Amino acid sequence: MVLTTTAALAEPQVVRLMDDKVATITAADGMEVLSISASGSEQVEMLSGAEVDIVAVADGTENEALFGAPLVIAEVTGTQTCEDGDPLDYYVVKLGLFPEDPFGPVTSCIHLAAAAEDGVVTLTAPLDRPDAPSWTWTAATGFVQKDN
Questions:
Q1: d(Cα 37, Cα 20) in Å, to the nearest integer?
Q2: 3-state secondary structure (DSSP) of residue 65
Q3: How does pLDDT run across 74-83, given as a tens digit for each residue?
Q4: Suppose 91 and one of 33, 68, 102, 144 were both cysteines; which one would form an S-S bond, judging by CB atoms 3.0 to 4.6 Å apart?
Q5: Residues 45, 33: contact at Cβ < 8 Å?
Q6: CA–CA separation, 143 and 136 (whole Å)
């Protein structure tokens, strides 16, 4: 495993296999780093933050055809200030032959539910927060806020 940081690395916290792609979250100097690679190749750092979580995955032949590559939807502790809750940034990471820059962020002060189906990633606010925005992402449009 190769990361471009000079920090001492802990064991990977999360590893997801998607076709021949691997997404790994590793702790480094009090931060978490999401890296991706094709199996057996050098990892490329994509995102980092105090906490990084993979909240949804779109892999398999059908999703790869719809999205153009397997996807990871990640939630990263954000830097914005929130009156209630922690700031959270959401990203779509496309795991193609050559990793693209992550799409995002969409910033929220509450956890959003993430789903990826039929070529659309949806970030949805909880039912008890109808005032909070929800978002969709497609390869063609990027992130678009949904009307509540």
A1: 9
A2: helix
A3: 999 977 788 8
A4: 102
A5: yes
A6: 6
CA distance to 56, 62, 75, 91, 121, per residue, from 88 (Å): 15, 29, 6, 10, 17
Which tokens hold the place of 71?
């996807």
- Residue identified by tokens 């690679």 is 37
Residue 10 pLDDT exceeds 90 = no
Tokens read off for 110: 């509450």
Tokens encoding 80:
């914005």
Determine the Cα angle at 28 with ends 46 and 113, to 5°: 50
- State how far the Cα of 76 lies from the Cα of 90, in Å rounded to an integer: 6
Higher-pLDDT residue of 42 and 77 is: 77
